[in-house]
């Protein structure tokens, strides 16, 4: 892939990610503090290894303050996870709205991967602690995810119809594209060998190779 194509993907994809505040719209500073503390605690010890005292440790808050804003530890995880799902679906919707399926794929891979790197602490909780959610909460997130996946599948199908993507099992390809980027949150950190922008550029190339795009 030419550097011009990668640069174009970064140019279009960066505004979809840069400057995002995962806690924008949280109703109070206290709730924000608790959600940030929840990400830190769940990320370090996992949902089942974290108790309420572990969440609020160092915040200056009491467990009673947590219950003012969240009905339970699971509700806190759900509210954190829902914000992550909403953000990633917004990125998917914006990228797949691009008419050219090849450019859409490049921008999607760039932006979705960059988000996973920049928000790796929250993303690790959002995508790797979901088994702890209640069936009702898990279903709500699954509906959000499914809406985004449908848009990715439609983009891939359009590319296949246009002859710019290799034909294949669209559902599996869509899942593979998402999994490739989601895995970034599992290993990314301050010592990672790539910046979020560099990783987004690399994954835009890998996504195109997966679908047989050649310059």
From TrEMBL:
InterPro entries: Homeodomain-like_sf (IPR009057), HTH-type_TetR-like_transc_reg (IPR050109), HTH_TetR (IPR001647), KstR2_TetR_C (IPR041490), Tet_transcr_reg_TetR-rel_C_sf (IPR036271). Coiled coil: none annotated. It comes from the Bacteria. Residues 51-70 bind DNA. The keyword DNA-binding applies. The keyword Membrane does not apply. Residues 28-88 form the HTH tetR-type domain. Keywords: DNA-binding. PANTHER family: HTH-TYPE TRANSCRIPTIONAL REGULATOR RUTR, HTH-TYPE TRANSCRIPTIONAL REPRESSOR BDCR. This is TetR/AcrR family transcriptional regulator. It comes from Amycolatopsis silviterrae.
């Amino acid at each position: 892939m030419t550097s011009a194509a990668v640069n174009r993907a970064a140019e279009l994809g960066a505004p979809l990610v840069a400057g995002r505040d995962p806690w924008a719209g949280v109703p109070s500073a206290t709730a924000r503090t608790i959600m940030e503390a929840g990400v830190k605690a769940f990320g370090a010890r996992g949902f089942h290894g974290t108790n309420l005292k572990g969440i609020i440790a160092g915040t200056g808050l009491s467990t009673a303050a947590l219950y003012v804003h969240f009905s339970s530890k699971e509700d806190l995880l759900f509210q954190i996870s829902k914000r992550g799902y909403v953000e990633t679906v917004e990125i998917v919707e914006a990228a797949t709205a691009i008419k050219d399926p090849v450019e859409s794929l490049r921008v999607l891979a760039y932006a979705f991967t960059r988000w996973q790197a920049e928000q790796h602490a929250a993303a690790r909780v959002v995508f790797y602690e979901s088994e702890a959610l209640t069936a009702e909460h898990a279903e709500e997130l699954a509906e959000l995810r499914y809406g985004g996946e449908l848009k990715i599948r439609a983009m891939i199908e359009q590319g296949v119809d246009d002859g710019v993507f290799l034909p294949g099992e669209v559902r599996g390809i869509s899942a593979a594209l998402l999994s490739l980027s989601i895995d970034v949150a599992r290993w990314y950190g301050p010592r990672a060998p790539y910046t979020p922008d560099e990783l987004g550029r690399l994954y835009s190339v890998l996504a195109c190779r997966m679908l047989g795009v050649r310059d």
